[in-house]
Structures are given as structure tokens and as C-alpha cells.
Write a structure and sequence with these properties.
The chain has 227 residues and is α/β, with parallel strands linked by helices. It is built from 7 helices and 12 strands. The two termini are 25 Å apart. It binds cytidine-5'-monophosphate (C5P).
């Protein structure tokens, strides 16, 4: 069964300070193309995605528009200048999504290997009363809380998962969360959790690995070539 259609926000406005280089991280080369090209092309190809709004790094709006044109991404309806935080970028992009949109997907361009399968998987629970859906993976390592040099405690990893994107939302709930909260959480679902909203998680995908360092880029490139 095909889920209802959704609008997608692509967060691509990070400076990528941990990444280095002259360009913003989303313009780093992945298999000869800007990292952002993967997310745009893959979301464009998803039947469930109706339109796309991209939050671009300040000064890089034009290259984002040109990239979308080159890729034939006709679903990209707006490119906004991102904010100084991820939350700020999401808020600015949300303002460009039509009022009639019922479902919104928020995706980090830093996770280039988004697939239609995962988009379908995160949208599905929205049809069963959930307001927000997070793809996540069980934590494989033992997790410890530390204070400076000292290890303070070991946390039971049985109840921990590691959150990814794309995250899916009922549009009204996401808009309300960004309308009131500071929106400075590291993911959107956190704002809905704080408000006591109905948030669920579904199995994520290891290939949604986030590109933070050059090593991550090399890893994702290997996956891309072996897909
Ligand atoms: O910096 P980090 O990798 O955690 O950012 C996650 C995603 O959010 C990236 O795709 C990045 O481009 C985006 N971002 C944004 N606006 C910011 C900071 C990050 O769109 N101000």
C-alpha cells in the first residue's frame, strides 16, 4: 500500500566545520558529484515525495538551484538560505511548504544514501496515529557516561537507539513544535517528544550513515559503488 504524499525538507546548510575544506560539506565530492546530489536525486525519484525544499548554506543558494536543475529535480520548489543552526534551517524551510501539506519528511543531506524503502517505512506509521517517526538503529557499543577523564556509569544499551534521518511528521505537529520551541534540538523529533507528542521509531539503515569526516565520505562512496 502506498503511503500518502509528503513534502521533504532537505537540511543542507551546515558549514561542516568538523569536515574541513573550502566548500560546505554538502558540496564535497562523492563519486565525482556534490554530496547533496544523492539526496536530491533519490528524494526526487520517490513516488511518496510531492515537493522538496532545500535549506542551503548562505552564499550557496545559486549553486544549489543549478544542481537541482542539472539533476532534473523538478520537485525542488524552493531553496532557502539556512539558519545558523539546523533547527533554524528547518524552520525557514518549513515556511516554504504549502499550507495544505499534511506530511513532512525532514532529511539531512549529510546522509546521502536515502532510499525509497526507508521513506516508505517512516511514512507508514503516520497513517496509524503516530505524529512523528524516527528511523533508528540499536546501539552496538557499550555506552558510558563520562565526566572529564572519569567514567561515571554504564548505561543499559537495551533501551537505546541511535536516531537517523529522514524523520517523518504530521505537518501541523511539526509546524507547532517549531512555532513555539527554540528548535535548537539536534533532531526534529526531540521537539515533539518534549511536547509529549506521539513519536515512534522504525528500523533505520546502516547505509544512512552520516558524513561527518573524510573517512565517512570514503565509506559511503564504497557503499554507493557496491549498491
Ligand atoms: O552539522 P551536522 O552534520 O550535524 O548537520 C546535520 C545536517 O543539518 C547536515 O545535512 C547539515 O547540512 C544540516 N544543517 C543545516 N543548517 C545548519 C546546520 C546543519 O541545514 N545551520
Amino acid at each position: 500500500m502506498m503511503s500518502a504524499q509528503a513534502w521533504a525538507v532537505v537540511c543542507a546548510a551546515g558549514a561542516g566545520e568538523r569536515f574541513g575544506g573550502e566548500r560546505p560539506k554538502v558540496f564535497a565530492a562523492l563519486a565525482g558529484r556534490p554530496l547533496l546530489a544523492e539526496s536530491l536525486e533519490r528524494l526526487e525519484a520517490c513516488g511518496e515525495i510531492e515537493g522538496i525544499v532545500v535549506a542551503a548554506p548562505a552564499g550557496w543558494e545559486e549553486p544549489v538551484i543549478l544542481l537541482a536543475e542539472e539533476l532534473g529535480c523538478s520537485k525542488v520548489s524552493a531553496v532557502v538560505t539556512g539558519g545558523s543552526t539546523r533547527g533554524g534551517s528547518v524552520r525557514l524551510a518549513l515556511a516554504e511548504i504549502p499550507d495544505e501539506a499534511e506530511l513532512v519528511l525532514v532529511h539531512d543531506a549529510a546522509r546521502p544514501l536515502v532510499s525509497e524503502e526507508i521513506v516508505t517505512r517512516v511514512l507508514e506509521p503516520l497513517g496509524r496515529g503516530w505524529e512523528a517517526v524516527v528511523p533508528a538503529l540499536p546501539v552496538a557499543d557499550t555506552v558510558k557516561r563520562v565526566e572529564d577523564e572519569r567514567v561515571v556509569e554504564t548505561i543499559d544499551r537495551g533501551s537505546l537507539v541511535s536516531a537517523q534521518t529522514p524523520q517523518a511528521f504530521r505537518a501541523g505537529v511539526l509546524r507547532a513544535a517549531y512555532g513555539t520551541g527554540h528548535g535548537e534540538a539536534t533532531d526534529c523529533a526531540a521537539l515533539i517528544e518534549e511536547r509529549g507528542g506521539r513519536v515512534c521509531w522504525v528500523e533505520g539503515d546502516p547505509r544512512l550513515h552520516k558524513v561527518t569526516t573524510l573517512d565517512d565520505l570514503a565509506l559511503v562512496e564504497v557503499w554507493l559503488e557496491t549498491l
